[in-house]
Amino acid sequence: MSIRRVTCPACGAAANAPAAMANVKCPGCGTVWNVNNPVVPKKQAAQAEAGEKTEPEGKSEVTVAMFAGLVGGVMLLMMMIGLFVFLLGGKPDPKSSTAEAQVEDTIKPAIPEEYRVVNLPEEARKRLYDDYRKVARTTVEKPLILPQGTRPRQSLEDMLQKTFDRELMRFAALHDISVDDVKEVIKEGDAKQWDDRPRSHAVRDGRRVYPEEMSEGWEKNPNRK
Description:
Elements: E1 3-7, E2 14-18, E3 23-25, E4 32-34, H1 42-88, H2 122-138, H3 151-175, H4 179-192, E5 203-204, E6 207-208
Antiparallel strand pairs: 1-2, 3-4, 5-6
Helix pairs in contact: 2-3, 2-4, 3-4
């Protein structure tokens, strides 16, 4: 069987084909033509040309998509930063714009309140009071660095107060007493100084949680809020 050399009229690729074969398919672009009448239909020629350009266009589309995604991510990050700065630096509420240095009013009294002894063993009351002090230091007595009067500060104070209130309910359920009984145990513990460590310098809603004289190291404390 004799072989002859033919050239694809669509893409110009050379190929070997049997001399007796009339129709030949190009191994490069897939075009089929008659070797005795090498006229390629315009549709096939256009498809062959488009096939050669497919890969570069695909790469270009991927590059554009990656660039667009990167720009979108940067813009989203900038928007989030701007929102955070706006919330953090929001205008103070005129009703609670008391300067930290002028805060003198306190939430808790300087002297112990009167209390009634709850019907629980003293050891159990002391354990309850110790648990209360641990919760209080991380919620309602925790110093905050957010500016007074701003929305983020108020939201955080509300969240910490709700957490503290839920813990009081848990203490009541744990000891099978009422929430009012839990508060009486707290008053008793304060009066008897079951925890004699210095109290917090925290401020809530423009008022100190405890009087300044109950908190040591006020001048050296970096968190006067």
